[in-house]
Amino acid sequence: MNANTSRHEPAEGDQEAQLLSWTARDLPTGRHQFHKERLMAQIHDMRQQEQQDRRTAPAAPGKRRRLRLPRPAIALPALAAALAGTVVAGIALQGGGGTRDGGVATGPALTTQVGAAAAGAPRLLDQISLAAADASHPKVGPGQYVYIESRMADTFLKVVNDKTTLASHALHRRQVWMSPDGTKGWLIDPAVNDSPEGETLSLPDEQGNTPKAGLNSPSYDYLTKLPADPDKLLAKIYKETEGLGNTPDQEAFTTIGDLLGESYPPADLYPALFKAAAKIPGVVVVRDAVDAVGRHGVAVARLDETSGQREEWIFNPKTYVFLGERTVQVRKGTGVDALIKPGTVMFTSAIITRSVVDGIKQTPAADG
pTM for this structure? Predict the structure, then answer.
């Protein structure tokens, strides 16, 4: 079911809980907390406005006003089987400790200097696609698992006692295992689960559902069926993400970015993703960007004109290996988002290991 539709209209409390549940499960980790808290802040603001409206202009007798939930800046796809996310970290970021929240210390907003954007993205992406085509890329066989280890940190809107502030999840380690068909997996991430042992991602989920894999919740098997022709691939992305995100171009860019992060694109698809991205209008180059563990690189980026946030995919400037990504606020927000100042790092990631292993909870070193 699409996150923007339902078979029946739930009560207000159920509607909020359902939206927040989708936020937590369907957005890439590091982004879901921001959107969850942003929704809570917007709900609170709308309730206050609704109360004011009722005092100044009462509704007609027999009619009940309904709380209309806002559509998040990033749409909430309902196909995700687990918390799929780009892995991240924040050594080069400014931020501190604080109280415990979700197993990870929270502190002030993460900040950075906003790098200048320049033209030249198609040429850079062409070089990246050539390097990707030459890279070693083992297939994932039956019984094996895609293993990704990363570091992550993020900034989010936090609501406590009706007061909204900016907070951050500190740099932490994330490990995820997923079977080729996407039905078995495991996640260790202190920002998601307090247990150091982690939690299962195996299906069906807690509601008894077994969602199908898709662009917003891709399994390895699903990725092997995507077209490797850049034009056909981009057309499919636009079609399947229609109506999501702030604009079609931005949603296409975000979708490809998520596939670069915590998934394992097959050898023929990997370079096609970069060639497809080169065809999206508004894509630029940031000559100096820093990933979550402080590695400097060159970034392929796009500014979301609605949110004022720029998504950056960061690559090694010599080998063009994908390092990680970050989302930086480059324009001052409005409404609830006015708290987010330019230079705020909303999301930052660094890929440490991406490999194929022979069992769940095994690591490449353990496999020998």
Answer: 0.74
